[in-house]
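Curious: explain these tokens?
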Amino acid sequence: MNKKEIRKKYKDLRSLISTEELEEKSLAIANLLLKLAIWQKNYYHLFLSIEKQKEINTACILQILAGKDKEIVISKSDFETGKMIHFLLTDNTKIKLNDYGIPEPIDGLEVPTSKIDVVFVPLLAFDKNGHRVGYGKGFYDRFLSECKPETIKVGLSFFAPETAIADFDERDIRLNYCVTPEEIYSF
């Protein structure tokens, strides 16, 4: 399948998930994340869930990171440049929904991508080779390409992988891991 077909398929599948099922699957993903050997790092980039897109609820992951006293980085999207600006999440960070329903920090202490050790990556689908399909705007591919080579990229998915994404691009940044409610995939 190509990216366009995969996007439609997984948006449709996500739309069928109940609120209760979404919470259960999100918790299962957070629990499996604890088994990864990533917790010795310092700076963790986490996306804040877009509720209307039925994304994985990252609140449990946020609690894990806070409980482990990690530096949590969240982003704000600049739709004019297609880039993301990263901010340290603190007790004083004010979050606001942008025009696309994405929760974002209003401002704060900016964090350079060179400091980020682990990125939890949102996606619609992924394949057995670690390629991912997002919403198609390229924000995460641009961001991940700016990260240092050793930055660990962890996809989070409600669904098992596709066999292969037919039209992945060589510039697409592969994941190191993808975690579903049932399994950890390593690439």
